[in-house]
Amino acid sequence: MHPSAIYDLLEIVALLAERGIQFLLASHSYFVVSKLFLIAQERELSIPIISDQNNGEWVATDLKNGMPDNPIIDESIRLYEEEVELSLG
User: Fold this and answer.
1) How far apart are CA 79 and CA 75, in angstroms?
2) Residue 30: how many CB atoms within 10 A of its CB?
3) How many Å apart are CA 29 and CA 6, to the nearest integer?
4) Whole-angstrom Cα distance, residue 38 to residue 89?
5) Tens digit of pLDDT for each residue in 43-84?
6) Dihedral of alpha carbons 42, 43, 45, 50, sign
């Protein structure tokens, strides 16, 4: 999904969640997790997540408490940092 479309969709999901509607989302997208993290921080909204640590271990956390340790997120951040380093070169 396009990053700006993710932003709009998750804003709608957050509005509905604040009104008591529950959602289950599955994603490997850093954009999705990052936007949900920002929503949790800005609105002080509890957004529980469960993530696989790539070893069969599942960890439950809440985005209201911070970004989780997760191999997909870690790799996305690593690639972004590498891209920034190249551009600043």
Assistant:
1) 6
2) 18
3) 10
4) 29
5) 999 999 988 877 788 889 999 999 887 777 788 889 989 999
6) negative
